[in-house]
């Protein structure tokens, strides 16, 4: 177990947790910034976590919920105040209501995660600062210290599991919630490069083709938040064709973008796409959380081989970036 000490300072209103790991700082950092990894240890074993959003950049947010033995859920969120890549990040840590908004009835804690190199590997020093002595006592009474110890006991297994998160792996899709899927892949290239490849029309047409034998003919970008985008494809011989259109809801270059998406000419409510780009060892972790109007629609879309087409395009993107 990596946990080495837990110290409470009632005068400073802090709780400091120190843990040592036999891995490089980069490996430990990536475990915290990759939603696929952090959710495997953030919640205690009997309350596993699911991260529906994890944007590790200044001004970003993380949303998660922990599921209890009887199916009950407890939500949480982080608001990122500072991020020093590979060294530290500071968040305001709070509880969330069922709709994902901040529960202001419970205290908000400021937490700084500091990553340091040691002779044996790396050290993580987490300092939680509470707004008052009453808040500190309340959260400790709610099991914060015991929950942290239980969660920290799971990190070693995640750090050892390099195979599941290797940069050379193809697109992976994970069902989360009732109507969502999280698509993940590490792209060999910087965050700026991958962002640009998703927004420059002529560059998009070089790689965003889907299966072999198709070409992208239209790559119209939304000029600003609230604007519309449109993308169309045809076979190389000009036969058949399809396309998507939607609205740009949020844009925080080069880290996060949220859009709606509908197939052109198809009735029904649109899907919601949340794209996050995070620097990790080996390149950029691309995370796309798609929320469908229904579970049935999610299953229908995945059954089309969507991820196979995405993998073909992302492999082509790496060739373009290299």
TrEMBL record:
Identification of the protein by name: SRPBCC domain-containing protein
Gene3D superfamilies according to UniProt: 3.30.530.20
Native source organism of the sequence: Microbacterium stercoris
UniProt xrefs under InterPro entries: ASHA1/2-like_C, START-like_dom_sf
Residue stretches making up the Activator of Hsp90 ATPase homologue 1/2-like C-terminal domain: 23-159, 190-321
Residues in the signal sequence: none
Pfam families for the chain: AHSA1
Organismal lineage: Bacteria, Bacillati, Actinomycetota, Actinomycetes, Micrococcales
Lineage: superkingdom: Bacteria
Family note: Belongs to the AHA1 family.
